[in-house]
From TrEMBL:
It comes from the Bacteria. It comes from Rhodothalassium salexigens DSM 2132. Residues 12-72 form the HTH tetR-type domain. Keywords: DNA-binding. Residues 35-54 bind DNA. This is TetR family transcriptional regulator. Pfam families: TetR_C_7, TetR_N. GO terms for molecular function: DNA-binding transcription factor activity; transcription cis-regulatory region binding. Gene3D superfamilies: Homeodomain-like (1.10.10.60), Tetracycline Repressor, domain 2 (1.10.357.10). SUPFAM superfamilies: Homeodomain-like (SSF46689), Tetracyclin repressor-like, C-terminal domain (SSF48498).
């Protein structure tokens, strides 16, 4: 290993430890109650090392948002069933979106973004990036169903909006503002309603919609 390789590996390790420590602290406390000094202590790095990677606490929080979004996107991608009939596939994907989107750690992250996004544009930008990645994942999922002949997406944006909008209105937004959430049975019912709505509007004649 060359000196340059060693330094790069060491820097990557430091950044990873900083991000992991920051994630634990930010999810357990409000944004204002987490200090950069506490992050360095938890990550076992110096303040100088932290500021080599992140120029502010807001930038650090933004990195947590991006990392968490990537983790959730990977989870959702792994949940896609390319073999299931369209109705079952859409319902299963919608259910997984709800299960992830209403987790306590995810809700805590989004609430902080709402509270701090105006003060710190980096945090808002990170959220918008995460939202774009989620939207792209939903679009890709629906296009995969179209490619196998189950959907006819004459308006892809409308299909994505229908899928996300129903989940936002009935599940994500109520949970975000602290209203009683759907129980497991309620989430399952909503997932099937989303699937039925998508298939009713965009189902292709002769597609594998049963299930």
């Amino acid at each position: 290993m060359t000196l340059a390789d060693y330094q790069a590996a060491k820097a990557a390790d430091s950044r990873q430890r900083i991000t992991k420590a920051a994630t634990r602290l930010f999810l357990a406390n409000s944004y204002d109650r987490v200090s950069v000094a506490e992050v360095t202590k938890q990550a076992d790095v110096s303040l100088r090392t932290l500021y080599k990677h992140f120029d502010s606490k807001a930038a650090l929080y933004a990195s947590v948002v991006v990392a968490k979004a990537e983790e959730l996107t990977d989870d959702l991608s792994a949940s896609i069933d390319d073999e299931a009939p369209a109705l079952a596939a859409v319902a299963a994907f919608a259910l997984r979106v709800m299960q992830i989107g209403t987790r306590d750690d995810v809700l805590a992250l989004w609430r902080t973004i709402i509270m701090e996004g105006r003060r710190f544009p980096q945090i808002l930008d990170a959220y918008l990036q995460a939202r774009e990645e989620f939207t792209a994942l939903v679009r890709d999922f629906l296009q995969r169903l179209e490619a196998r002949g189950d959907l006819r997406l004459d308006d892809r944006d409308a299909a994505v909006t229908l899928f996300i909008g129903m989940l936002d209105y009935r599940s994500s937004l109520p949970a975000l503002i602290g209203e009683p959430g759907l129980d497991a049975a309620g989430q399952t019912r909503l997932a099937h309603q989303v699937a039925e709505a998508v298939l009713a509007r965009f189902g292709a004649a002769g597609g594998r919609s049963a299930g």
